[in-house]
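Session log. Operator J.P. requested a structure for one protein chain; no other inputs attached. Running the standard single-chain path with token output.
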Amino acid sequence: MFAPLTEQPPSTSDAFWFEALRRFPDLEADNLVAVDGTDRLVLAEAGAALKSAAPGQVVVIGDRYGAMTLGAIALHGAREVRVHQDLITGEQALALNAIRAARAMGTERAMAAGLVDGFRQLPLTRELFTEATIVIGQLPKSLDGLREITQLAATHCAADVTVLLGGRLKHMTPAMNEVLGDSFSRVQASLAHQKSRTLIASGPRPEVRSGGATTYPLREHHLDLDMWVCAHGAAFAGTKIDIGTRFLLEFLDRMDPAARNGVDLGCGTGVIATALTRARPQLSVLATDESAAAVSSALATIAANGLTERVRVLRDDAMSTLAGASVDLVVCNPPFHLGTSVHAGASAKLFQGAGRVLKPGGQLWTVFNSHLPYRPQLARAVGPTRVIGRNTKFTVTVSTRSGQRHEQQSWSAPL
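Structure written below.
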């Protein structure tokens, strides 16, 4: 039985309490929640299957901050749960929330439930799904993201697997049922509850199961740039090159000519990193993103263009693991969404990260929709900011890190 989201803390410490969960280290704000009605609905719909699953047979995918994983363990007795979260901040939040929930429940009960050590993180590969009998999660934003998940699940899960993926009604479309139907013979939708619904799939199609592989990453060659772009399902823009990135690429030759190292921040499929590496042979380039799908896509794009030996790829949260004042040049096409919510913090965190890692005199080049109030943010986070280019939709700026430039050796250790 699930209490409403407005519930108060239980009077005893032996109950699992959703409100103990937080988004941290992801951004937190009044309109951003760590647990929603979809988390609760999926757990309620999957309750019987979770209770009957043997250890190691439960997979949780797209769990934003740990509510589904921890709820499956504490409320339904799931054991040895396999988890995939695309964002590194989601992984970190799950680990922290496991500790918070354990404290709220009481150490003895939490230990018995296996709350802190009852799950393990895995990439979106065969190992995540092999012989699983129940898969639960949040529906991804894109149909390609859903298609990659369902292809892997239908191919590698047990033949009697049930997949339950939930979403908010306003973000769900009939095309999601069609994508599930491409890999599973039976697809149905639950009744709506608190503006959420689950899609339930079973019966992996024999032709998918016998195929043994997914169609991802996808590949596309762009003749105008002579560039291959590869993309896993959840990667932004897929194999396309969005028009903001294209506009930013027009200014590559104007970016700090003295730079010896550069970062493609929020690299997505690695288009900027690829173009920057080609244009600047002397530059040591790092591509970094918080998304596992983006990092995997960037690795594939860089390999497809023959640049594996020249570009590093790192999954990180706003360059948090890079040393301060260690970078000459940062190039960024920042997001302005957090999940499905528009929020200024989506870009501010990246700008602040750039301000921290840039050397004095280092440059941050950014492209953004012209109506967005990013220029004051950039000035505060990095330093003086100039508009370098503007077209009917986008603005390109360069922000210079305040202080005098001091020549430093490039990164002394692998990033």
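Operator note: The radius of gyration is 22 Å.
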